[in-house]
Specification:
heterodimer, A: Sufe protein. Chain: A, 3-stranded antiparallel β-sheet, 6 helices, globular, disordered N terminus, B: alpha/beta, Aspartate Aminotransferase, domain 1, 2 domains, 4-stranded antiparallel β-sheet
């Protein structure tokens, strides 16, 4: 028999595995003021990001829902965490390197879109947002 | 002796070590690997005979032309076409379906109806969406039943005097469903609709015979049948090809040209504008020769055994769901499955860490995924070189997956 657990260890960091098993920011956000959603055309993954942005521009809360793989889920979870309590301009400045720094995992080029999809959704939400 | 014991040594790529394991390639449904005979035929062509075809009056041009046209003869024989003029080379299945849609599209008018099915690959859906939009035609889909087969009663309801085209797959690239081509063609013909069959997942795996199927168009790719990328075949029944204007223009497809008009070339060249994929045609000849030597009935039998073993093995693993028709029903060399609690991409990544290549995602069949109620699936597909031992490796790896993330 194969030793699959070691395979998982070798391809995903503990951060990704932990956030996939127990995302901290997953779920609906009633009263969200900025909502956006997008899909990854390569795999059909879908992520919806909900933000409560205060009038002064501070992001009071962020949550996500979606059908997504471990990397994409972890990325969305990290992004929701990084933007919570931050200003809108801080959130706009968030880039893939910030997310990768938290994920602590080598991401192959074919899976990079899994990391960036939630970032695209964040930009969309901050840009006025549109639920599709 | 099992087929794979004959064939494995012919595929150089199977020597690869991936993630520290010998490669287990279960993604031939996306693109098959190539036997040495194909690779060498193409190298030899480039090293000895390459020139442009048809217009070059010199030795190499003649050799290239002869080799290119030999490929047409090989396809003609392999698929049981009535004549070599019915074999048109394209760049692949997607290209062939697009060409047919564009060509037939010009004859459609507002209110005409195009019928597809819920099983279709996007390549047999999007071209019809574009044509329907441009011509004001209606696009409708034949639904599937719970067992993954087509709802033929619904087909009868959807077929009307307005139906001009019925475009459907021969073998589903997700469920492995084999559609009743002869029956569908018969019903479509009763309303004088043109039939277009996507054979990409059929031709590499079973005997297909145009004279028996009776469809108007049948398209497939070289690269899924042990041949090279960049070449495909559009078979068209002669009376239908004769009745159609070329979809695309350029060199090779004309006889005589004036500034404002042109006279079309004879079949099949009328539908082959531009320099064709010549080396790829040479590779395709070699691939067909390879498959013919094995015998398509033997290929089908071998792959059926692997498919059956995979379905039964996966279904016995707790938390694993297998899609498609029941194992007792004859189906293509495709097994789509889901592992409870795991995303298909993670399944593929975890299997890759053990050297096992499977496909994951929507398989370019988003409407079908929606019908199944999933984002995507993982998918193992088989070819002549796969072994029962490889199936065992897949099953063992999948059994270990649920505890792994």
């Amino acid at each position: 028999m194969s030793q699959a657990p070691s395979a998982a260890n070798s391809i995903y960091s503990d951060v990704i595995r932990e956030r996939w098993r127990r995302p901290r920011h997953r779920g609906d956000l009633p009263g969200a003021t900025a909502v956006a959603e997008d899909v990854n055309p390569l795999c059909g993954d879908r992520v919806r990001l909900m933000l409560t942005v205060e009038p002064q521009g501070r992001i009071a809360a962020a949550r996500f829902v979606g059908d997504s793989c471990a990397i994409c889920t972890a990325s969305a979870d990290v992004i929701a965490e990084l933007v919570s309590g931050r200003s809108r301009s801080d959130a706009v400045a968030l880039d893939v390197a910030d997310v990768l720094a938290v994920l602590q995992s080598e991401i192959r080029p074919t899976r990079m879109r899994c990391v960036t999809l939630p970032l695209t959704v964040l930009a969309k939400a901050l840009n006025g947002g549109q639920g599709s | 002796m099992k087929l794979n014991e004959h064939t494995r040594g012919d595929f150089p790529i199977l020597q690869r070590i991936v993630s520290g394991h010998p490669l287990v390639y279960l993604d031939s449904g996306a693109s098959s690997q190539k036997p040495r005979a194909v690779i060498e035929a193409m190298s030899e062509y480039y090293e000895r005979s390459h020139a442009n075809v048809h217009r070059s009056i010199h030795t190499l041009g003649e050799e290239a032309t002869e080799l290119y046209e030999l490929a047409r003869d090989a396809v003609h024989r392999f698929i049981g076409a009535a004549s070599r003029e019915e074999v048109v080379f394209t760049r692949g299945t997607t290209d062939g379906l697009g060409l047919i849609a564009e060509t037939i599209g010009r004859t459609l008018k507002k209110g005409d109806e195009i019928l597809v099915t819920e099983l279709e690959h996007h390549s047999n859906l999007i071209p019809w969406q574009l044509v329907a939009r441009d011509r004001g035609a209606a696009l409708k889909a034949v639904p599937i039943l719970a067992d993954g087969s087509l709802d033929l009663a619904a087909l009868d309801r959807l077929l009307t005097a307005r139906t001009r085209v019925v475009a459907f797959t021969h073998v589903s690239n997700v469920l492995g469903t084999i559609t009743p081509v002869v029956e569908i063609v018969r019903r479509a013909r009763s309303v004088n609709a043109i039939t277009v069959v996507d054979g990409a997942q059929a031709v590499p795996h079973m005997r297909v015979d145009m004279s028996a199927l009776g469809c108007d168009f049948y398209v497939f790719s070289g690269h899924k049948m042990l041949g090279p990328t960049g070449i495909g075949v559009m078979y068209g029944r002669r009376p239908v090809l004769d009745s159609l204007e070329p979809g695309r223009g350029g060199s090779e497809m004309i006889k005589e040209v004036w500034i404002d008009r042109a006279q079309w070339n004879d079949l099949p060249w009328r539908f082959e504008p531009g320099t064709p994929p010549i080396a790829e045609a040479v590779g395709l000849t070699a691939a067909i020769g390879y498959l013919e030597k094995l015998g398509m009935d033997r290929v089908a039998e071998h792959e059926r055994a692997l498919t059956r073993r995979t379905i039964e093995g996966l279904a016995a693993i707790p938390g694993v769901k297998v899609y498609g028709p029941p194992v007792a029903v004859e189906r293509g060399a495709v097994v789509a499955f889901a592992v409870e609690g795991l995303h298909p991409h993670d399944v593929a990544a975890l299997l890759d860490a053990e050297g096992i290549a499977v496909r994951a995602g929507h398989h370019c069949a988003m409407p079908l995924m929606r019908r199944l109620g999933v984002v995507g699936t993982s998918r193992a597909t088989f070819s002549v070189f796969n072994s029962p031992e490889e199936v065992s490796l897949l099953l063992a790896a999948v059994a270990g997956l649920r505890s792994s993330l």
